[in-house]
Design a protein that fits this description.
Length: 563
């Protein structure tokens, strides 16, 4: 287990690997992608038809890549840079191989559709140094001024194991954890739907914190406080306490917070390599065609206006004033952009979908990285035998500090602080250097004998996603009562359910997925949108490899009553 408070129940039969198979929509995207028949085709009469893809993050690039393979001509619009929240940056004046992950930096093995594309473009992964993971030499938990050094959970005081046990019991008693985890591992669709249907009806109005409080296992406030500050998997989860417990259950059922791996060289390589990739199996286009070649190397600029025009077509105006009209379009950006940065017709979506987008709740998030001369934290104290510094979880301002190296004799990187929500907002007014000074002061109180500053070899790099104009937050996180809104957005690709004059523009991306904050959701919703566009053009999947829309009625998300 990689967790400070490990994921609940040890599996009695772990022969089948877990994947993000449900619980809301138990469809095997990994099998769909791996099938030799491919994911669908369109009539030859539609080959070369342009389709707008708005947003060059992972979801947009995956959608564009698959549309291109079918013989369509995706036209990608991107306001900033290809990659979205797969953003890898360097440090000025430092070795270009020394990088920082400003967005997504760790990926669970359960992200099997994502892994398909990682393998496709030939990227390598390696274990990510989460708290108490095998990739982490040691972890320090520092709460209320008291620090505990640990290599495993057994090295921590008994109260931490008590909290772990409380979380296990809470999940088992309140959320049928073992049954659901087993059903997902076995891809037992009827059982998944049976369990999840009851839980959605029971828990849609419950917060994460309320779920803990309702459990006899967490009757102790001290246990709830420690759990919030230390958490499981990646660290403290108190910033998620106001969110819907359904969001948290999706994470633990799918082991999304366990066994993480990072992408060697940086996660942004994935969309960039897909952008440049020349697929060997491609329809209509000659071999050697790539998304880059179709765009003369650069995507179209930011979209400033979207409207419907005659023939139920989608008209796109970009930042240069260029106006183009398309028979279909996919929007993959964060949905608030349709309410703020982009001038939109009301006719683009049904009113209840606009309501769902307006109600989207975003998590704030900030990081700050510094480059250092070497992984000095591995220096051993001659008396204690402990490392000079450890992966650190604390209730101080830094909250989570990660130590990232590529060998003992190479420059390395420290993520001095990774914070969320209120903790992130506290950093917002400070410059990068001001942030660094506060972080070094906090860490100096935990490691008084370590001079971190003397090892720093370049300026800090930082991000506050809530302050990024084309994002306005890190990712969606549903509040209690938001399940119905999320269902509307996720199922939007099934456009035969929509009025005829509200079709043709498809939603995809993190906001639309059930597993927000995980790149897997971006990939899955991209494939849903591709299926929708294919269908709009009269295409179809092979009978031996039905797509997500073909089996929709059998596995559709639970539909809660509106009255």
């Amino acid at each position: 287990m990689t967790s400070t408070v490990p994921n609940a129940v040890q599996h009695t039969d772990a022969t089948e690997p877990i994947t993000m198979f449900g619980p809301d929509f138990p469809y095997a995207y990994d099998d769909f992608l791996a099938h030799p028949a491919g994911i669908g085709q369109i009539p030859a009469t539609e080959h070369g038809t342009e389709v707008a893809v708005i947003g060059g993050g992972l979801s947009g690039i995956v959608a564009a890549y698959e549309l291109m393979k079918m013989g369509l001509r995706p036209v990608v619009y991107e306001a900033d840079r290809i990659g979205g929240r797969l953003r890898t940056v360097g440090f000025d004046g430092c070795d270009p191989q020394l990088t920082a992950e400003m967005g997504a930096m760790r990926f669970p093995p359960s992200s099997t559709a994502l892994q398909h594309y990682i393998d496709l473009v030939g990227l390598e992964t390696k274990p990510f140094p989460n708290p108490l993971s095998p990739a982490t030499p040691s972890t320090v938990v520092d709460l209320k001024g008291e620090s505990h050094y640990a290599r495993t959970i057994d090295d921590l005081p008994q109260v931490y194991r008590d909290v772990m046990d409380a979380w296990n019991r809470c999940l088992e008693e309140g959320a049928d954890f073992s049954d659901m985890n087993r059903a997902m591992r076995e891809r037992d669709v009827p059982r998944i739907r049976e369990i999840w249907s009851k839980l959605v009806q029971k828990l849609d109005n419950q917060t994460f914190y309320g779920f803990l409080c309702d459990s006899e296992a967490f009757k102790s406030f001290r246990h709830r406080e420690i759990f919030g500050q230390v958490g499981f998997g990646t660290g403290g989860w108190d910033t998620d306490f106001p969110n819907s417990i359904l969001e948290i259950l999706r994470v633990v059922y799918t082991e999304a917070d366990d066994h993480h791996r990072g992408i060697v060289g940086g996660s942004q390589q994935l969309p960039l390599r897909l952008w440049d990739r020349e697929p060997q199996k491609i329809v209509h286009w000659p071999l050697g065609t790539s998304l880059s070649s179709l765009h003369d190397g650069e995507p179209r600029p930011a979209v400033t206006r979207l409207n419907r025009t005659a023939g139920n077509r989608i008209t796109v105006t970009d930042a240069t004033g260029d106006i183009r009209t398309y028979p279909a379009a996919i929007f993959t950006g964060q949905s608030w952009l349709l309410l703020s940065k982009i001038d939109c017709d009301d006719a683009l979506f049904p009113i209840d979908h606009w309501t769902a987008m307006e109600r989207t709740h975003y998590m704030e998030s900030s990081k700050l990285f510094v480059p250092v001369d070497r992984p000095f934290w591995l220096d051993k104290d001659g008396t204690t035998g402990r490392e000079a510094m450890s992966m650190t979880l604390t209730d101080r301002m830094t909250r989570g500090t990660y130590l990232l190296d590529d060998g003992p004799d190479r420059p390395a990187v420290i993520c001095l602080s990774y914070t969320w929500c209120d903790d992130s907002l506290k950093w917002l007014p400070l410059s990068p250097n001001e942030r660094m000074d506060v972080m070094l002061k906090s860490l100096g109180e935990i490691y008084p004998d370590v001079d971190i500053r003397k090892h720093i070899i370049g300026n800090p790099v930082t991000v506050s996603w809530e302050n990024e104009p084309w994002f306005m937050g890190a990712f969606k996180a549903n509040l209690p009562g938001h399940y119905r809104y999320q269902r509307r957005l996720f199922t939007h690709f099934m456009q035969d359910r929509l009025p005829a004059d509200r079709r043709g523009l498809f939603l995809a991306g993190d906001d639309i997925s059930w597993t927000a904050g995980w790149a897997e959701g971006a990939v899955q919703t991209a494939l849903n949108a591709v299926w929708g566009v294919m269908t709009r053009f009269g295409g179809a999947t092979d009978a031996t490899n039905p797509g997500p829309g073909d089996v929709f009625d059998d596995i559709a998300p639970v539909e809660l009553p509106e009255d």
